User: What shape does this take?
Amino acid sequence: MKKFYPNIRSVQLRVGIFTVAIILVFVFSYLWFTNRLSTRSQQDLRVSFENVAGLEVGDKVMFRGMEVGRVKAVEQQGERVVVNSRIRRDVRLKEGSSFSIDSSSLMGGVALNILPGEGSGWLDLSKVQSGSAASGIMGVVSQAETAIRSLEDILLRLKEESGMIDKGERLIDDASSTIRNVDGKADQLAADFSLTLKKLDRLSGNIDALIASNADSLNKAIGGTPAALAGLHETLDSLRVLSAKVSQTMGKINSSTGTAGMLVNDDELYTKALQSIENLDALVQDIKKHPKKYVKFSLF
Assistant: This one.
């Protein structure tokens, strides 16, 4: 080859440079015509979402069914995800415009969709806009992913050592042990109740035998009860009569009639009677001491 092309290396180098230049021209031309290279014809749009449903850098930004830009970055900020994109400057958004993530095609593509508002003023694109949850197929997919993650979390919690399954097994074991204890106590209670019934039967038999062996004595005692009650009634009647007589006597004494009443109620008479008794007692004592003073004997 060197005989026919002595400068083959320089030729190859020139061909490579020319090829790269042609490729760069095509790339820059494509970017220029699609408004992806010019910064003057584009403006920034930042939208915050709770879930971006698989939106990635380079995905389309759609407005009224047409592509107006591309997603440049997807960043997480706290509990939200901020989507940074660049859209055409001629796209003017009014207040009340909403943002959502929808499917861009039946093949499963994802796009940032802008729904125009009907406000009187223009939307301030220097601020971070708030996006709504994904709708359509992407909304269903997002909700399904969220549900699957929640289900996985629930299953993990259930499978933990102190999870619901472990607690359920422990509860079942405790319930089985409690049932066994209750069965044992029920059997013991039944045995105690049967023993008590047997004791009651024996006691009832002993009472029947005692009554049968002392039937005559009980009958006599029951037969003599009316006579005893009659005697008791007669005694009570005598006591009532005696009580009436005592009441009459006390009434006479209190009414100052008769000797006893006068003695009880007349203090002067009582005092004189007491003095007479004392004088009589003194006379008897004097007679005992000096009998000759009162009795004289004469023989002649």
Remarks:
- The two ends are 226 Å apart (CA to CA).
- Residues 164-213 form the longest helix (50 residues).
- Residues 207 and 213 are 10 Å apart (CA to CA).
